[in-house]
Amino acid sequence: MTTEPPPPPEDDPFKKRQPPPGEGGGSPYDTPSEGSEGGGTTPPPYAGDPYGGGPYGNEPLAGMPPLGDSPKRVLARLIDMILVGAVSWLLAWAFGATDYDTDGGTVEYSESIGQSLIAAVLYVAYDTVLTARDGQTLGKKLFNMRVANLDDGSTPSWQNALIRALILWLPFAFCCACIWTAITGGWSFFDKPYKQGLHDKPAKTVVVSTG
């Protein structure tokens, strides 16, 4: 009686595959090797668990860089929130979309629908444009990380970047900023094997290190 795990299904899109002989190329995750004509390296033969456990340790796909560190992802997101939030508040104030009341010489601010709408548009646009451009928001660039397509490591398309941004920022802007930030920010701490955030799932993306 064998204790070896069953082989992965043939239609598994994330199974490590050895490219046919004579074809260099490899995955966009690969880095060029010296003297190679194709620009990419040939990943090693599939071994062990299709999601890691072989020569790449916890790296799920052949040639994939290390997955982004979850605490650093949270810090990068906080930086993005502060930067875009400051611009959002200034625009809301300039257009009179910020509600405030004065009582006894103090000023109390409250969020209006207009301010939420401005914040949603700015956050979604910021995340979509920068992710579709090179996979890096300013926060991720600071911490040497980028968003990549899970299946091949390429930069996400505009459609996938938009899906990811909408899931991440619409609930944040309109209803449950603190709770939603905690959920999306904490999801990657427990997700296996790809450390995906909740917003990465439908967009089929993953955050990897560039350092």
From TrEMBL:
It is found in: Cell membrane. It comes from the Bacteria. Residues 1-64 are annotated as: Disordered. The chain crosses the membrane at residues 74-95, 166-190. The keyword GTP-binding does not apply. Keywords: Cell membrane, Membrane, Transmembrane, Transmembrane helix. It is a multi-pass membrane protein. This is RDD family protein. It comes from Streptomyces xiangluensis.
